[in-house]
Amino acid sequence: MNKGLKRLLIGRPLKNEEIQGEKFGVLWGLPILSSDAISSVAYAGQEILLVLLPIAGFLAFKYMAYISLAIIVLLGILTLSYRQTIDCYPNGGGAYVVAKENIGLIAGVTAGSSLCISYILTVAVSIASGVQQIVSAFPVLKPYTSYLCVLVIILMTLGNLRGIKESAKLFSLPTYFFIFSILLMLVVGVIKIFAGYKPEPLVLDESSFQPVTLFLILSAFTNGCAALTGVEAVSNSVPNFKAPSTKNAKAVLALLSTLVLIVFGGTSIIVNYYPINPEKGAMLVQIAQMIFGRNIFFYTITVLSFAILVLAANTAYFGFPNLISVMAREGYVPRQLSMRGDRLSFSNGIISLSAIAALLILIFNANVTRLIGLYAIGVFISFTLSQAGMFFRWIKNKGDNWVVKAAINGFGAFVTFVIVIVIAITKFTMGAWIVVIVIPVMIFLMLKVKTHYMALHKQLKISPEELKDVSIPRDVYTNRVIVPIASINRASIRALRYARTISDNVVAFNVSIDEEQGKKVREKYNMLDTDIPLIVKYSPFRRVVEPLLMFIESAEYDYQKGDIITVILPQFVVKRWWNNALHNHTRAIIERQLIRHKHIVICTMPLQMKDDDRVLKSHKYK
Amino acid sequence: MNKGLKRLLIGRPLKNEEIQGEKFGVLWGLPILSSDAISSVAYAGQEILLVLLPIAGFLAFKYMAYISLAIIVLLGILTLSYRQTIDCYPNGGGAYVVAKENIGLIAGVTAGSSLCISYILTVAVSIASGVQQIVSAFPVLKPYTSYLCVLVIILMTLGNLRGIKESAKLFSLPTYFFIFSILLMLVVGVIKIFAGYKPEPLVLDESSFQPVTLFLILSAFTNGCAALTGVEAVSNSVPNFKAPSTKNAKAVLALLSTLVLIVFGGTSIIVNYYPINPEKGAMLVQIAQMIFGRNIFFYTITVLSFAILVLAANTAYFGFPNLISVMAREGYVPRQLSMRGDRLSFSNGIISLSAIAALLILIFNANVTRLIGLYAIGVFISFTLSQAGMFFRWIKNKGDNWVVKAAINGFGAFVTFVIVIVIAITKFTMGAWIVVIVIPVMIFLMLKVKTHYMALHKQLKISPEELKDVSIPRDVYTNRVIVPIASINRASIRALRYARTISDNVVAFNVSIDEEQGKKVREKYNMLDTDIPLIVKYSPFRRVVEPLLMFIESAEYDYQKGDIITVILPQFVVKRWWNNALHNHTRAIIERQLIRHKHIVICTMPLQMKDDDRVLKSHKYK
């Protein structure tokens, strides 16, 4: 990217020391980390209704209240369980770390893969739902839903490439506004009910009504479980908190649960009095329209719902690159993913996250119902492994009150494991099968990558004992230089002169397509004042590398085992990017083939070209 | 591509000497070079009818006969004109060469661009029409038309990558079979007419009938002009003929014209007695069904029509890469396009041709009528320039009978120029506008490329006088070496040892993210038995190249103008392709940035990695 443009879009680079300044306290930590859980009010309830309403009719609203209650209980269990994780892992206790340390490698890698998938789906689901809020209020935008989603993801990517703190402040206030406006809506809604408000009757297609099965209830319940996906973000992010980070993190976790209880529980109850049809648009937008009418409050709720869902997606922009970089440092994913970008964000991770989420949105046509089928399973696998890890930790390490603590984590692990099974069954055909296939594939690849790094390390490492005996003598290698030349010009002269400075054993090497061309090159070469011999080979196959390798192996060249052969290749460095299309192809091909031979070192000699127009002030074509 | 697979698909590589054996005589030259013109019987007539029938009704068949007559007259003029080109250009007289030599550079480049476009459209139109023949006989295939076209292009690409002669023999016999079967069809058709055959009456929608305008006649005529696109192929391909190549080429040109006269003229007349509806499928297939019924002869005609249209497309696979390589040698298109591939075909040209033609087919949905709007204009621009070039040549060089010869070429140029104007007007909105825009763009780019090569040449060339004074002294440069090391391992030791052999002025250079890491590296380095100094720099921005460049410019390093600095970078050469994703990223980034500095030479030191499983016979993850 152009440097100026890059600066404008993502800001100036930050020093390592500036990382400390990027950390957040409770005030900024809450909106950043709670938005995922709180924002789920915008789709979890709606997706519950979407399952129940066509089958159960108006009874759906009742069922929904009970299901929401179950989810809130589950939230309580998770909150207690994760408080303990925060205490034990002040450096960040993601499911990957906890499962790997306390259960084993495979458990850790499994948790890591599951988390990767759930971060990606957090972005996809939240953005799809966020845009759904907008298009529900402005139906004219409906045909552009997918494009709007991708646009939002692009903007978020740029925002996150700018770095942690600025994006936090940039994006945080809406969470508070959202919470406040939902509370206001609930209060006004309750007042209207007591004032005797009667909603327009909801017209349902009764022909599809059927007896409500347990499968149906469970399917609705698993949709609602998407509401719990923010909890692990807090325990992952402990080191991002200002000191005392553990205490701050626990405060944020407690506040988060309370807010979800009020907002999610409140809307699940109030929708009984303001019945909506989830197929006609976003639930929150419809409730707001009934409670406020189509005025400034309505538009505020719509925009804030969109905003908090964007914030929820943003949660993943902390979690995902962090996780990837931890796994990269340990060698389970490619190392280059562990490098921080210019602005201390993990740029590679951010960009991959955005790209895959955008792809999913395009594939699933930004349909929240279809995306949610993939969502919860990954989250609950990591919940299970993380809490199981904590359970084993207590068993092993003991400590104060360890039996109670083990019971809390163990119960949490048990409950979430049951939910994993329920999701796998009820959502299998709705997308969960993809996750069920992808996770083992990811585990396999991660182990492959790790094996490779281990093999590499073993080949490269020198033990301290060996190190003492290592010397760098002047004459360990005999260095011999070959300068391939196509013709005698300034580039080849420069290469020959350089060759002369690095070795006394230099040959110039020419491959000619026909005898005549070779003769010409030799004639010109003989005019030079040099003792470097020129070898001319005729290449019947119009190839360059093969004759060179054959020459090296020939008796004529007398290659001795252990000699290093340096091949000098000029590379034209041109002023305009399109000029590159015209150069260096042969060089690249030669380099790619020679690099496979371990006794050959390739020297790339840059040759700066001047601008065409400066060289040719006036010229005629010929 | 995998080497074994490549051999299987495109055969063994050929030597330069084998080119001679790839040339063809009249017997093989005729089918290869005539197929384009002869195959046009399959679509030119049909596209004439498609314009006229909805407007003029049954009168269309009469008009078509007259239009075909005009086209045959035009063919006669072109044949006479191009005979003279073959005589004057035994090394291949493509429009590019003739126009450039006799009119000027811009005319040449214009002809070159036009020819490029017409070669591409020869492939697109012929394949689209070929597949249309098949789907007309087997309507069940109709939904897959575009895919079938792309499949055929892929197969042709492979065939042509195999080389000239084999593809000729592989593809040639069908032309003779096609000619024979069309003659048989015409004879049987005439016999049936005399035997009193009455076709089923053709039902036309009379509501669309309108008075026939000159514009309409001209539009139909320009569609028919697509029939003439094979003529220039012969004069381009003179050097591909066996000796005496001029005589053989002229014989082929004469035979070609006679065959087009019989086949194209014959079907244009007979369709008056076997009226078909061109909107219901391919004309030839429909006529064959009426004459033969749906039996073995019908299927034979269908398959042979398809086959000769594939052959017609194949014409472009000789012409296009030949043209491109001529222009590449002269520097108007990127030089790498002039290199012959393994099997003496011009692989790059073949692949580009296929790719663009396939793209056009996908864009225009394999619709012959829409593609033909782009086709004829390019061909006729090159006809005009080629014959105008010949005209100027006679004026300048004179010679025997030059007035008559100039008159023939001049008349040809005039007629084809008028047709260019007619096509530009009648087909402007039907696709000709694309060509009208693309040709000037291509001319501009070609001149830009030429300018660049000229500027490059000027900067590189050393005149023979200068050459005598050029020496290659041992000490023209002071060579200083920097070895960037991330840690002390076998790769860095190897690089340091190599550095020692090429210079006495070596420094090891480490960039550390934090002070602690730098200290560790220094500790290990100090254990080495070496006098090479280690420089450790702390990089606050987590960058590698900037600190290195800053160090080079610092007083500490004491860089003197004219010194060359060699930077040695290890590159891991891994056994499995996917391992590459895990390595060499940092190296590539460093190389790309350093290459911009002219005093820096980059040495890539390959380090062969063993296979993971061999290194780690038994291992535990950690």
UniProtKB/TrEMBL annotation, chains A, B:
Keywords: Membrane, Transmembrane, Transmembrane helix
Primary site of residence: membrane
Listed GO CC annotations: membrane
Subcellular location: Membrane
Keyword Membrane (UniProt): yes
PANTHER family membership: POTASSIUM TRANSPORTER KIMA (PTHR47704:SF1)
Membrane-spanning segments: 63-82, 103-124, 144-164, 176-197, 209-231, 252-276, 296-320, 344-366, 372-394, 406-425, 431-449
Superkingdom, natural source: Bacteria
Membrane topology: Multi-pass membrane protein
Matching InterPro entries: AA/rel_permease1 (IPR002293), APC_K+_Transporter (IPR053153)
GO MF term list: transmembrane transporter activity
Organism of origin: Ruminiclostridium cellobioparum subsp. termitidis CT1112
Protein name according to UniProt: Amino acid transporter
